[in-house]
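Notebook B, p. 112. Complex prediction, attempt 2.
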Amino acid sequence: MRGMIGEVEEILRAHDYKMTPKREHVLCVLLENKKRHLSAEEVYNLVKQRVPDVGLATVYRTLELFSNFDIIRSTDFGDGRKRYEFGTGSNDGHRHHHLICVECGKIIEMNEDLLEDLEERVTSAYDFTISDHELKIFGKCRDCMGQKNK
Amino acid sequence: MRGMIGEVEEILRAHDYKMTPKREHVLCVLLENKKRHLSAEEVYNLVKQRVPDVGLATVYRTLELFSNFDIIRSTDFGDGRKRYEFGTGSNDGHRHHHLICVECGKIIEMNEDLLEDLEERVTSAYDFTISDHELKIFGKCRDCMGQKNK
DNA sequence: GTTCGTGCAAAGCGTTTGCACTCTG
DNA sequence: CAGAGTGCAAACGCTTTGCACGAAC
């Protein structure tokens, strides 16, 4: 994980940005919460626990910065706010989908390359050069289905 | 298309809502622009051309109303505002996906049931009961690719 | 000593809501 | 005249921005 920070530092430096302590904290919070899909405010609160004098604007600016370099990716799961997570690398980062439970809001991650043949079809049928795709599946998770049946 | 209005009127009436003239105009605008994906404000402007005394709030309320009954569906294509289009019926309305050109913003519609076997896999692998899904594919359309190559 | 990063507060923007008016039945 | 529908303007929630201060090279 130290390595990850160095890696990001490289990317930033390559674009004339610095890895400041606050940016590092934002990164750490994201790294330590890989499983969750934090909103900007949630990131802010977690960073604030370690660095009380951080500002919300800085968090937004940092998230924006990381987004621009595909270090993280933002998605709106339907609650009107952006949520951030690591892009799992800029090459294969786009094959990454979510199951969203409409009952409890849980988000289950799903890595699935089944869309590859769909991609091929689309490319030829529509003359469309795909750079990324995003699949959200809505429904009910096991737990919430269980409750329904009791 | 007259039939469509009657149909919607039925749905509304069944839930104790009325098909007022303004709601009808909103519906008409949506019907006449099926191919486009209008934002609330765009709908508002188009309705205003016919009924100058309409309010933006009414448009929002109407769109919300139609959404609730799955008459229309809203999607965010990444520009931070909701865009509305007809759900093609409440049964099969969810098999409806989009190609979004990141260059010119064009949205190409794509009806594709290739995700069905993916659905089956997900259902069994994750114990997840799917009610809907949404697939957005980002890339460059033919026109924009052409420009790039010239 | 520039330049970049930052905190704070204000502004922005799409959307929602409170309230009073209006229209319909 | 009761109740739903509506216009207007204010409020809202998330995000962005302007500005002045502060840190780093």
